[in-house]
Design a protein that fits this description.
single chain; 381 residues; alpha/beta; five-stranded parallel beta sheet; 13 helices; 44% helix; disordered N terminus
């Protein structure tokens, strides 16, 4: 299954947002798509409200993360504003026992999978254990190495095959990662072994300061069929299309037909990370165009046409966002760093003499700082 049209060398379609499948347009109007409709036939106004709530909460987490980093509470933050629809929609389609392999920007995926407030900020503070236990929410810890999680997902999917279960693994990565060998090698293995894995490529137009046209002259979804993997190219700012596409892809993989690939065309509204200045490489007009395609505003407009965006609903969602935002902030401000010597804890299942020797040397090194501090204090009297 693919929504790709015939492409010509004279046409640069890597950034084309018209050649995508969608169910809700930029004005919040439902549009027909014969490939997607049947996968969301059960989605009523209440389900749309739930999707809207999730996206709003994810944006609040993101807003708190940026603010905390600017205030010196976090070392770094990778914003996801503008990408809430693809993250929430695809994650909502997964079963609880499916295993997800996100990159560092999939805040919405982590939220839907059940991450706690502290899980979003502890890693960016460099605290103990970084973040959640992956097996608590069947979601791997966010991968910093670009594209590596695609190999992890395929390896897990091959394990699923050997276990004889009907789980599916899902790998999330960006348009820049599609140029990495890891992603292409992962697709080769997935196709060759018909592994139950779904590849979700979030094409947010920019790989740090490099536009997607550096990564691809044609839609990235067009690559997957070359590996024998069916693909779909969707409007990544349409949460309903994201849900439908992922349901299709999961069904394909779960039924033994092998891997599937989704390219979600969206936009990173903020910087690559809080250490980046996107004004150095992006035009203001481009950002303004994508603001008008906001995924949350789109579903709000749809809900209003269904008389499902009343004052009580708005108040409840705003209160939920405030509570979650406060909890994320409290988790960051209340984090307690472990003692430096703790770096040797839980390195191996069983202690051994080499580790004990290293611990002893490091303890002596730390003690040296205490002695110097004491000497300095005495000298200052």
């Amino acid at each position: 299954m693919t929504t790709m049209h015939t492409l010509t060398p004279q046409t640069d379609l890597a950034t084309d947002i018209d050649d995508v499948a969608r169910l809700v347009n930029e004005d919040g109007e439902r549009v027909a798509d014969p490939e997607l409709e049947r996968w969301v036939a059960d989605v009523d106004a209440a389900a749309l409200q739930s999707l809207y709530r999730d996206m709003t909460l994810v944006r609040r987490i993101d807003t708190e993360g940026v603010a905390l980093q600017r205030q010196g509470q976090l070392g770094l933050w990778a914003p996801c504003q503008g990408q809430e629809a693809v993250q929430v929609g695809t994650a909502r389609a997964c079963r609880a026992d499916d295993f997800v392999f996100p990159s560092y920007r999939e805040i919405g995926v982590q939220h839907v999978r059940g991450a706690e407030p502290a899980d979003f900020v502890i890693a960016w503070r460099g605290e103990e254990h970084s973040t959640y236990n992956p097996y608590d929410i069947n979601t791997a810890t966010p991968q910093i190495i670009i594209g590596a999680q695609s190999l992890h997902a395929v390896g897990y999917a091959m394990g699923i095959q050997r276990d004889g279960t009907d789980q599916v693994a899902a790998a999330y990565f960006g348009d820049g990662a599609s140029s990495q060998g890891d992603v292409n090698e992962a697709m080769i293995f997935a196709s060759s072994f018909r592994s139950p894995v779904v590849f979700v490529c979030t094409n947010n137009q920019w790989a740090i300061s490099e536009p997607v046209t550096v990564q691809a002259k044609f839609p990235i979804a067009g690559r997957a069929p070359g590996f024998g993997i069916p693909s779909m190219r969707i409007d990544g700012n349409d949460v309903l299309a994201s849900l439908a596409a992922m349901r299709w892809a999961l069904d394909h993989a779960r039924s033994g037909k092998g891997p599937a690939f989704i390219e979600a065309v969206t936009y990173r509204m903020g910087p690559h990370t809080t250490s980046d200045d996107p004004t150095r490489y992006r035009h203001k007009e481009e950002v303004e165009r994508w603001k008008r395609r906001d995924p949350i505003a789109r579903i709000e407009a749809l809900l209003r046409t269904q008389n499902a965006f009343g004052e009580d609903f708005q108040t409840d969602v705003a209160a939920d966002a405030d509570r979650l935002g406060a909890a994320v902030r409290a988790a960051a401000l209340g984090a307690v760093s472990r003692e430096p010597i703790g770096v040797f804890d839980h390195v191996y299942e069983e202690p051994h003499t080499a580790l004990a020797e290293q611990r002893e040397h490091f303890a002596a090194y730390l003690a040296g700082f205490a002695t110097e501090a004491g000497t300095g204090a005495e000298a200052g009297r």
